[in-house]
Amino acid sequence: MILASAQTYPEQKNIFSNLDDHYHCIQVAAENGADLIMFPEMSITGYVRENAHELSFSPDDSRLDLLRQLASDNKITIIAGAPLRIGPRLFIGSLIFSATGTTSVYTKQNLHPGEEVYFQSTLSYNPIIEIENEKISLAICADIDHPLHPESACLRGSSFYLPSIFFSKNGIPEAHRLLGNYAEKCSMNILMSNFCGESWNTVAGGRSAFWNNEGVLISSMNETDTGLLIVEKAGEIWRGKTIQSC
């Protein structure tokens, strides 16, 4: 199995520019044999609150058609983030485009203080992704601050836990500590994707990373560069490499 985490620097509110970055990263991941690529929280729009409704997507939005096509053509699962409309409700969501052509969604279950003014939370959209007989659970940002979230993924039989986050430069050391502990405690492999650069008047912390199911940090990107972290399992050993400026 080969997994890719995209570390991006989105242009705030510029959907089409950000989508172009997604297409390029997906192509590079596919060329490296990835079965899955994950982007950070709200990767398509950049992190937004006040403008979230006007920038939001529905799961069947035609602007997402090329992501669907790229997933199908390259036999790769794509996880991308955006404000998500489901009926009259607005969520922080991850859109999941499968290699078989289906689209599903995960919605953030634990909102950061202040997000509740603009978004709602629910437990209703929490799919498990299956690739090569492995079960994969998702998380978005503040979900990882709640230990019951990864523990629930473990109880559902997941062997992988994939958080898409937007953590600041000051906050990312704590994110690393938490995720390393969860990997060891829950015996899950954890792949995390974070922004770099400035978003929402905050300097993002980068350091997208992968921990194996013993809690060992296998590979991590730096704080500042865009690119891909690609991890591959050979036998029982995980190896990682970074590709800058994908």
**Relative helix content:** 10-25%
Give the biggest beta sheet. 7 strands, mixed
According to CATH, what is the class? Alpha Beta
Give the amount of beta strand, in percent. Answer: 25-35%
> How big is the Rg?
16 Å
Return the CATH architecture.
4-Layer Sandwich
Q: How far do the termini sit from each other? A: 20 Å
SSE order, one letter for each helix or strand: EHEHEEEEEHEHEEEEEEE
Q: Provide the residue-averaged pLDDT.
A: 97
CATH topology descriptor: Nitrilase/N-carbamoyl-D-aminoacid amidohydrolase
Low-confidence stretches: none
Give a written overview of the molecule.
By secondary structure, this protein is an alpha/beta fold. It has a single domain, classed as 4-Layer Sandwich (Nitrilase/N-carbamoyl-D-aminoacid amidohydrolase), CATH 3.60.110.10. The chain has a 7-stranded mixed β-sheet. β6 and β7 form a beta hairpin. α1 packs parallel to α2. The radius of gyration is 16 Å and the shape is globular.
Q: What labels describe this entry?
A:
4 helices, alpha/beta, single chain, 7-stranded mixed β-sheet, 6-stranded mixed β-sheet, 32% strand
Summarize the structure.
The protein contains four helices and 15 strands.
Secondary structure elements and pairings:
Layout: E1 2-7, H1 15-31, E2 36-38, H2 65-74, E3 77-86, E4 89-97, E5 103-107, E6 129-131, E7 134-140, H3 148-155, E8 160-164, H4 172-186, E9 189-192, E10 198-199, E11 202-203, E12 209-211, E13 217-220, E14 227-234, E15 237-244
Parallel strand pairs: 1-2, 2-3, 7-8, 8-9
Antiparallel strand pairs: 1-14, 3-4, 4-5, 6-7, 9-12, 10-11, 12-13, 14-15
